[in-house]
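Predicting holo structure, tryptophan bound.
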Amino acid sequence: MRILTGIQPSGKLHLGNYFGAMKPAIELGSKGDAFIFIAQYHALTTVHDAAALRQATLDVALDFLACGLDPERICLFRQGDVPEVHELAWFLSVVTPMGLLERCHSYKDKLARGIPASHGLFAYPVLMAADILAYTSDVVPVGRDQKQHVEVTRDIAAKFNQTFGEEVFRLPEPMISESVAVIPGLDGQKMSKSYNNTLELFAPIKELKAKIMRIATDSTPLEDPKNPDTCRVFALYSLFATDEERAAMRANYLGGNYGYGTAKKALLEIYERTFEPFRRRREELLGNLDYVEQVLRRGGEKARAEAVKTLDRARRAAGIV
Ligand code: ADP
Ligand code: TRP
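Done. Tokens:
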């Protein structure tokens, strides 16, 4: 079973990315044949600053490696190292009905957020389909917001196969990790770079502390019982905690005489404890960027060899040899 997922280098990765996408992908990837790539061309639909894109690309690679991605088991690569994907995207785009793209929520959401409409933004799902199909992926772990794009990929792949009368593309399945659902941000909305409500994975501890201490809580007096199920601090703590730790904090909330300040300290502490080995590993990697480059380049070569095979099938099927 081949697993593939991509993540855009469009800003610093945060806890929502970690628990919603990185951790499940790393765990799942360690079990099978997995590809994880840095979607530079997707980020280019919104990031128009070369230095920022370069930095964010490196940061995503460092973050994944620091958080436990083993490059011997998971192929980590940059989208930019596989130019075949763009030719493939053209093959797909000639069989993609306009209406299919017009219905994409993500496009409409981006326009609503004030991102100017560009052809790239509109055609984004076709490039994503090319990414997925290039590596004959079976399963694509993504957040809920990306599920529709995987469904679009299936539609486009089926249309191409049907049009040219050959099974050129394998149809992928989206995989949504229901257990992690949506990680709340500091303000209670979905944690997202676009909402300025994140806890960045590798922010300095001082900054994390300040942000955690500012999380709004209700005004229940210290002595009274508190509801863990409506509290953001408890929700964030639960992501890190073992079942016993979570049950203990729940009991503290319900028992009264337990303040939000204490819960926030516990959150900071468990965050620091969990990320301490990742931070150390990230520091080591920063001192060995040649190694990181080598991992990405080797990953790119492996991925490219797969994409070349798929592109060759598409070219033949469409009559371009
Ligand atoms: P952002 O909303 O910060 O721009 P992206 O859209 O780049 O994040 O998401 C990258 C990956 O991380 C996707 O698979 C997405 O579903 C996941 N993800 C992002 N934010 C969250 C969240 N708050 N909870 C769960 N998963 C998330
Ligand atoms: N669109 C995805 C996101 O914003 C990133 C992405 C690009 C992707 N190509 C992909 C994810 C292929 C999975 C498979 O999160």
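The chain has two domains: 2-182+289-318, 193-283.
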